[in-house]
Design goal:
Elements (H helix, E strand, L loop, with lengths): L26 H24 L1 H32 L9 H7 L2 H11 L3 H4 L11 H5 L6 H32 L3 H28 L12 H26 L8 H32 L2 H10 L3 H21 L8 H23 L12 H23 L11 H5 L4
Helix pairs in contact: 1-2, 1-14, 2-3, 2-4, 2-8, 2-9, 2-13, 2-14, 3-14, 4-7, 4-14, 7-8, 8-9, 9-10, 9-13, 10-12, 12-13
């Protein structure tokens, strides 16, 4: 006989009943975000006319940033299903809503890749004159590049939609079948994601400098993306708490998220060191050229700041146990990590168009002004259209009594 979930709204502890679909941004905030996006779009158009290469590079950076937020949300949800992590069920709607912004990130990637000829010099050079590029031409060709991009986005969007749909359906059925389906779908997603995200990182970022290669680049970009996603997750929880929503949020949930943030920031630092150390030690010209460019002039300053902002400062702040349970302190660290992730992407992408030194101006900011407001709007739209707590999930009671 099939086991049925026993979680019902009436079964929940006093004061912890799930709230309905009542989360929405104030109209003035929505209008402000839309206004910022419109201004950003105008600046992008001007930038494409005035400084084409810099603007396309900034559009690629913005697309990776926006896409990463949605991907981090669905990766967190999928990891929760396959590991049976009951502690996070009560707050799972937040990363699911982050995953709801994935179409925005996907659209940003499609728009950014229109700039293929300006971003990737292998698209318009004689490959036969360069033995390295000629050897890579079976992969680095425009047709294959476009087909793979469509495949990556289709896999991510399709599996994300299926997982979110099952989760929503469970609110009505209160059964365990949806959980079983999502465990299977999540396992498929994580396997597919491992291959497709690594390949997408090679295509969209590493091929900006096609002579260079790193065998850990996929996991390096993933660690930065997921750490940034955890920071967005915590900031959204703080915003919901400030709005008087999500009464199920406990200090123990924050503590575990703080530990994850601490752990993945450290993991990013470890992979950063591994990549740098192995390339420095190997001293292979095709590999060292990447860092030689980033150790010239002002680029060297940003390259040194990168591990300090993304690892050292968060590590020192979050090391004490009380820091991981202090929402105000977590918010400050999360804001720092959001800035750090932008810096990390900037150092990876922009030296290809700024060999003489980094420049920060309107053309670097404008694409973010277009993309990020729509990520926020899409996320809150997803939050507002469903219950804030997955009341039909069989693990909800465990999550509500987490560490109590």
């Amino acid at each position: 006989m099939e086991t049925q979930a026993v979680t019902r709204t009436a079964d929940l502890p006093d004061g912890l009943a799930p709230q309905g679909p009542s989360v929405e941004l104030p109209p003035r905030v929505t209008r402000a975000l839309q206004g910022v996006s419109i201004v950003g779009a105008v600046l992008v158009v001007v930038g494409l006319l005035v400084s084409t290469d810099r603007t396309w590079a900034a559009m690629l950076l913005a697309s990776q940033y926006a896409l990463g937020i949605g991907l981090a949300g669905i990766v967190f949800v999928a990891l929760g299903y396959v590991t049976g992590a009951g502690w996070a069920v009560a707050i799972r709607r937040v990363p699911e809503a982050m995953a709801g912004s994935l179409p925005v990130g996907a659209l940003a990637v499609v728009v950014a890749l229109v700039g293929l000829p300006w971003l990737y010099h292998w698209t318009h050079v004689d490959l036969s004159a360069d033995p390295i590029l000629e050897a890579k031409s079976w992969w680095l060709n425009t047709g294959g590049f476009v087909v793979r991009a469509v495949l990556y986005l289709a896999v991510w969007l399709g599996l994300t939609r299926a997982i979110r749909r099952n989760s929503e359906r469970q609110d009505a059925t209160h059964g365990v079948e949806e959980t079983r389906r999502n465990v299977l779908l999540s396992a498929v997603f994580l396997i597919a994601f491992g291959f497709t995200f690594s390949a997408a990182s090679f295509d969209w970022i590493m091929s900006l400098e096609p002579h260079w290669y790193s065998t850990v680049f996929g996991i390096y970009t993933f660690s930065g993306m997921f750490t940034c996603g955890l920071a967005v997750f915590i900031l959204l929880l703080a915003a919901l708490k400030r709005m008087g929503k999500l009464a199920v949020l406990r200090e123990s949930h924050l503590h575990d998220l703080g530990r994850l943030l601490f752990g993945f920031a450290t993991f990013w630092g470890y992979i950063w060191f591994c990549q740098y150390m192995l390339i420095w030690y190997g001293a292979i010209p095709e590999e060292t050229a990447y860092y030689l460019l980033r150790e010239q002039g002002a680029w060297h300053v940003l390259s040194v700041m990168n591990p300090i902002v993304n690892w050292l400062i968060p590590f020192l702040i979050l090391l004490p146990r009380p820091a991981k349970r202090n929402l105000g302190l977590l918010v400050k660290v999360c804001v720092l990590i959001l800035l750090g992730h932008w810096l990390d992407l900037f150092v990876m992408i922009n030296p290809t168009v700024m060999a003489d030194g980094p420049v920060l101006g309107l053309w670097e900011i404008a694409p973010l002004m277009v993309a990020l407001p729509w990520v926020v709007l899409a996320t809150f739209k997803a939050l507002g259209g469903r219950n804030l707590v997955p009341e039909g999930d069989p693990y909800l009671v465990e999550s509500l009594h987490h560490h109590t």
